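Sequence in, structure out.
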Amino acid sequence: MASTLPPFPRLVFAVLEPISLIAGWIAAYFDTVGFIADQIPSSPLLNALPSSPSAQVVALQLGNTYMLLALLGLFILNTTTDVRVVKVYIIALAIADIGHVVPTMWMLGWERSIAVQSWNKMAWGNIGATVFLFVTRVAYLVGLFGKDRVTRKGKIL
């Protein structure tokens, strides 16, 4: 359960990450066109172009995936007492973090990827927040935050 995680990973994975995923869902569902336009920080002229119905469907599906991930995180981290389940869940998310950051940086190009001062809120979410989550996941998995807490049954998780 989330209570078996050390305090900092518990805060990040069981509170902050679900909140950020729900924020992504809200953005995709309630400002679909803006959500699409902000994926790649570019000129106002390019962002003013209309998005296709296909792009809008993909954005809405991505928003749905964000909500799914928020719910899975909340359910897994708040119901299981098996540390193996938590750790493989965290490993899966770390792998997905790489699959999220790499295409974003690829599409931005190296120069825009490292030009942090020019990132918009979407780039901060897609790169900055995701790299932070990845580093926190790896730090948890290698034990930098300490051991998992003992459950009521006396098992170390």
